[in-house]
Amino acid sequence: xxxxxxxxxxxxxxxxxAFQGDAxxxxxxxxxxxxxxxxxxxxxxxxxxxxxAELKGIRLDGGNVVIGAMTTHAAVAASAEVRKxxxxxxxxxxxxxxxxxxxxxxxGGSIANADPASCYPAAVLGLxxxxxxxxxxxxxxxFFTGLYETALKPGELITAVSFPPPAKAAYIKYKQPASRFAxxxxxxxxxxxxxxxxxxxxxxxxxxxxxxxDALAKSFTPEAAKxxxxxxxxxxxxxxxxxxxxxAMISVMASRAVAAANAR
Length: 264
Known about the structure:
By secondary structure, this protein is α+β, with helices and mostly antiparallel strands. It has 3 domains: 5-48, Uridine Diphospho-n-acetylenolpyruvylglucosamine Reductase, domain 2; 53-163, Uridine Diphospho-n-acetylenolpyruvylglucosamine Reductase, domain 3; 168-263, Enolase-like, domain 1. The protein has helices spanning 12-18, 32-37, 73-78, 80-85, 87-94, 99-104, 107-113, 120-126, 140-143, 210-218, 222-226, 243-263; strands at 5-7, 23-26, 45-48, 58-61, 64-68, 130-133, 137-139, 144-146, 149-150, 158-163, 168-175, 182-191, 194-200, 207-208. A 5-stranded antiparallel β-sheet has the order 4-5-10-6-7. It has a 4-stranded antiparallel β-sheet with strand order 11-12-13-14, sandwiched between helices. The longest helix is centred in the C-terminal third of the chain and has 21 residues, at 243-263.
C-alpha cells in the first residue's frame, strides 16, 4: 500500500475539516482498503469515520426510516425498526457479502462507492430514498451518475439515508457465488409514489426500468413482470453472461421480486 496520513475525527464537522488535499473518507473499508492494497486507489490522507458516533444508528422520522451513514449492514439486517417498516431492506442488508463484510461494511460507504453490482443502490432507487449529506439532501434518483460515480462533491460527506416505507417491496438477486455481488439484482416496490423497479449488476450503474414499472402499475403480478422484454442496450456482457442473458434475467428477477412482495 501507499503511505498516507491517517485522521480519525470524532464529529462530522471535524471530519469535514480534516478532508484536505488528496483525501478520501474511510467508512467500513470493505472496498477502499482492498483497492489500496491492489494499488488501484491511492490518497495522501484517509479520514476514518469510525469514531463519529453521530453517523451511526437507525431511527424513525416522519414515517421514514433514517439510517446513519456509518450503520453497518449487519445492524440494518437486525434492526427491529427496519424489519417492521421495510422488511425487504433488512433482507437486502442480510444478503450482502459474508458475515465479516456485513459486520464492517456500511450503508454510506456502499452508496458512496457506487459499485455497479452492489445491492444498496437498488434499494435507494427502488424505494425512492433521499441521501443526506453535511451540505444538502440529494434525491436518490439523482445520486448515482455513472460507473463508480455519484453526485457527491469533493469533501461532501454522507450523513444518513432516509427510506419511505412502501406498501409492498422485495429484492431478489442472481448472485455471483463467490463474491455474492449481484450479477442481476432487482428491487421492486409499490407505494404512495407508485411502482418502482431498480436494477443493479446489469449496467455500469444502477438504473430504473420504466417498461417494468408501467406494466406493474397496471398489474402488480409476476406474470406482468415476466412478460416485459428488456432491451440489451448498455447491458453488461462478461464471462458470467451475455447482454441478452442479463437482460432476460431482469424480467425473471423482477417477477420473483413481485411474487415475494405479494407474499408478505
